[in-house]
Design a protein that fits this description.
By secondary structure, the chain is α/β, with parallel strands linked by helices. It has one domain: Uracil-DNA Glycosylase, subunit E, CATH 3.40.470.10. Helices cover 38% and strands 12% of the residues. The protein contains eight helices and six strands; from the N terminus they run ααββααβαβαββαα. It has helices at residues 4-14, 20-31, 69-72, 80-91, 129-145, 157-169, 203-206, 213-226; strands at residues 50-51, 57-61, 112-116, 151-155, 186-190, 193-198. It has a six-stranded mixed beta sheet. Strand 5 (186-190) and strand 6 (193-198) form a beta hairpin. Helix 4 (80-91) crosses helix 8 and helix 5 (129-145) crosses helix 6. The longest helix is centred in the middle third of the chain and has 17 residues, at 129-145. It is globular, with a radius of gyration of 16 Å.
């Protein structure tokens, strides 16, 4: 389903230059390319959301990977985290293919839209609190436009905390004390919205066995079930 307001918002996001450190880093990475991608033209800008604008499941990651989404221009595309994510979505029937290589590879999502807490690749994958807060208004505006979302899957503690922070700022009643992050935890905020926390499918988690494919599949099976009335 077309959503012109959402498309316009993504155009604004991709032209953002509000955080000097992130602008410098993303452009530096795009110039000083990894050797294996030396012949490619890097995106080197803020990365837009990707997926179904009428989604019932919203996925919130941390930020674009320097040589993944910052290179390809699409969320979780061109790196091993994306390999894990799209394989899992494909197994649940939420994606038409299990691979995500480039923006023109034919990948389509059904009922799912993927965004991030911070939209530019940060040094060492660590945005500063100021960068997190400056970038937060983009996710806030997306939440206002995505009126059919019933489940938000947050990948990692950073995305989980930022999502709760933004929802609280919009007037959503968040339990006190604020529930701590744990893999598979569910937070029912009202009759129509549930947050599911998941470990991020980073190599740090997948290579060590902290996150297994079975654990990840359980998250998406649950999200799919809760997303349907």
């Amino acid at each position: 389903m077309a959503n012109p307001d959402f498309d316009r918002l993504q155009d604004h996001i991709t032209s953002c230059s509000q955080c000097p450190r992130l602008v410098e880093w993303r452009e530096h990475v795009a110039r000083e390319k990894r050797a294996s991608f030396s012949q490619e033209k890097y995106w080197g800008r803020p990365v837009p959301a990707f997926g179904d604008c009428s989604a019932s499941i919203l996925v919130v990651g941390l930020a674009p990977a320097a040589h993944g989404a910052n290179r390809t221009g699409r969320m979780f595309t061109g790196d091993r985290s994306g390999d894990w994510l799209y394989r899992a979505l494909f197994r649940q029937g939420l994606a038409n293919q299990s691979t995500s290589i480039a923006r023109n590879d034919g990948l389509q999502l059904k009922e799912v839209l993927i965004t991030a807490a911070v939209r530019c690749a940060p040094p060492a994958n660590k945005p500063t609190p100021t960068e997190r807060d400056v970038c937060g208004h983009w996710l806030e505006q997306e939440l206002e436009l995505l009126t059919r979302v019933r489940v938000i899957v947050t990948l990692g503690n950073f995305a989980y905390a930022q999502t709760l922070r933004i929802l609280s700022g919009r007037g959503t009643d968040i339990p006190r004390p604020r529930p701590k992050f744990s893999h598979g935890a569910e937070l029912r905020l009202d009759e129509s919205l549930t947050i599911i926390a998941s470990y991020h499918p980073s190599q740090q988690n997948t290579f060590t066995g902290k996150l297994t494919e079975k654990m990840f599949d359980q998250v998406w099976a649950r999200a799919r079930k809760l997303s349907r009335p």
